[in-house]
Design goal:
About 25% of the residues lie in helices and about 25% in strands. It starts with about 30 loop residues before the first strand and ends with a strand. The protein folds into two domains: about 5-65 and about 185-400, QueA-like; about 70-170, no CATH class. It contains ten helices and 17 strands. It is globular, with a radius of gyration of 21 Å. A nine-stranded mixed β-sheet has the order 2-1-17-16-14-3-12-13-15, with helices on one face. It has a six-stranded antiparallel β-barrel with strand order 5-6-7-10-9-8. The chain is α/β, with parallel strands linked by helices and about 400 residues long.
Length: about 400
């Protein structure tokens, strides 16, 4: 049954001055709130390796943020901002970034009602020669509610990845209330980012510098990666009174078969770095159920975890998923998820979560509440009363899952 949760019950007063507008000078100079067995404590982030059990599997999201915001101009002079969300044609990230003349994306378009049939030209106020040579243009192909399909064309034979690097800007979150700056190009990206595709950073990973990663590795922790490309849905506020009225957007992910096999071991503690990693890991269980019941995995729907009782153990589901990959000669699982994690969700994989402090009335705050058994308000009250910095460039927390 779909949970009937009032989003107003997950609100709190977040003063503007508590939102971290810029990153700290050093990645790992942030603070770390630790929550375990009902106890809250305050630590430097540099101490995080101390709290990771040596027998853990620690999972990072190695997606890479692309400069997906493009500013165009109508023939009338009006400005139109286009925010690339997801490949449309070609539909694969690797293929669309390699295209050299034309491609289509699903986008969010600012001032879209003012854009009819015009061919837009990239706004180039500084008359940059390379930008001029690329001659990037945009045509509106179609609309589906807030999502538009846009076709881009350009000259010069450049791959689209290069076009974005030259013409686009880093899509920092709107709640920072500022334009992207040079510092964001480096710092709104994890050190281990590898695969292009996200329009938002998996921000829990922004705190990790080489020192912490080395300390965790030396402790014997098995450090693994998944890749979930974060969509702009992470920025969209919940507008409905009940969470049942909120629509989650599809986000594609990739998980290696080797990691799935490791997760089958019930004796391992699984540490997820970020909510995107949690959503990926927890989606694996339902992909495994599909393998048991249908013979193959499919995209995970938003409300799949709540629609019925599931009698399969985590080991059974993940074993079935790994078996499907074996039978089909696949080394990776590539599907998508719309899964939403709210109070009442049963966690099957994740034991410990490293995450930042999230917006009021957001789906991410609901995930935190589900993970800590409803203790989110006490945790956030402590963070507010003790000077922690909030949101994407803010401080971090390490939360041990409630067993209640």
């Amino acid at each position: 049954m779909i949970p009937e949760i009032r989003i107003s019950d997950y609100s709190y007063d977040l003063p503007e001055e508590r939102i971290a507008k810029y990153p700290l000078q050093q990645r790992d100079s942030s603070r770390l709130l630790k929550y375990e067995n009902g106890e809250i404590s305050d630590h430097p982030f540099r101490d995080i390796a101390e709290f990771i059990p040596s027998d853990s599997i620690m999972v990072f999201n190695d997606t890479k943020v692309v400069p997906a915001r493009l500013h165009f101009q109508r023939p009338t002079g009006a400005h139109i901002e286009i925010f690339c969300l997801e490949p449309e044609e070609p539909a694969e990230y690797s293929r669309i970034f390699a295209e050299t003349g034309k491609c289509r994306w699903k986008c969010i378009v600012g001032n879209v009602k003012r854009w009819k049939s015009d061919v837009l030209t990239l706004y180039n106020p500084d008359s940059d020669a390379m930008v001029s040579d690329m001659d990037l243009k945009a045509v509106l192909v179609g609309r589906d509610n807030e999502i538009s399909t846009v076709e881009f064309t350009w000259a010069g034979g450049y791959p689209f990845s290069r076009v974005l690097e030259i013409c686009g800007t880093v899509p920092i979150p709107p709640y920072l209330n500022r334009e992207s700056e040079a510092v964001d190009t480096e710092r709104y990206q994890t050190l281990y980012a590898r695969y292009r595709g996200s329009v938002a950073a998996p921000t829990a990973g922004l705190h990790f510098a080489g020192t912490e990663l080395d300390a965790i590795r030396k402790k014997g922790v098995d450090m693994e990666t998944v890749c979930l490309h974060v969509g702009a849905g992470t920025f969209l506020p919940v507008k409905s009174d009940l969470i049942s009225g909120h629509r989650m957007h599809r986000e594609p992910f990739i998980v290696r078969k080797e990691l799935i096999r490791k997760l089958i071991d019930p004796g391992k503690t699984v540490v997820s770095v970020g909510t995107t990693s949690v959503r990926t890991l927890e989606s694996l269980y339902y992909a495994g159920v599909d393998c048991i019941e249908k013979g193959a995995p499919s995209d995970i729907g938003q409300w799949v975890p709540y629609g019925r009782e599931y009698g399969y153990s985590t080991e059974e589901a993940l074993t079935a998923l790994a078996g499907y990959l074996d039978r089909n000669g696949l080394d990776e699982l590539k599907i998508g998820t719309r899964i939403i994690i709210v109070p009442g969700f049963r966690f099957r994989v994740t034991d410990i979560l490293v995450t930042n402090f999230h917006q009021p009335q957001s789906t991410l705050l609901l995930l935190i509440s589900a993970f800590v058994g409803g203790e989110w308000r006490r945790i956030y009250d402590y963070a507010l009363e003790n000077g922690f910095r909030f949101l994407s460039y803010g401080d971090s927390s390490i939360l041990f899952r409630s067993r209640a």
